[in-house]
Design brief:
Blueprint (H helix, E strand, L loop, with lengths): L1 H8 L54 E4 L6 E4 L7
Antiparallel strand pairs: 1-2
Length: about 80
């Protein structure tokens, strides 16, 4: 499978909040009630704004998921800024 090949090619690391030297940049939002399969294949322009002068060693990507139209809204985040 493609995701298994990607996991072997891209190193994954846990990142501490103190290591982040930029503000989050939104790449894309999806509404699963209205989206089509083709919507998941996209390109996105974004700007990264630094919050301090520092060396950059990696790009951190994460996603947030929210289900707000349920009887009890629920969600989760893979963000290093997310507090459990």
């Amino acid at each position: 499978m493609v995701w298994q090949m990607i996991l072997h090619m891209v190193p994954l690391y846990a990142v501490e909040t103190s290591q982040i030297c930029s503000r989050p940049a939104l790449m894309r939002t999806f509404d699963i009630k209205t989206m089509k399969k083709e919507d998941a294949d996209f390109t996105s322009s974004f700007v990264i704004t630094t919050s301090r002068k520092d060396y950059v060693h990696a790009l951190v990507a994460y996603f947030d998921v929210f289900f707000n139209d349920c009887h009890k809204p629920i969600g989760f985040s893979t963000s290093p800024m997310c507090v459990l």
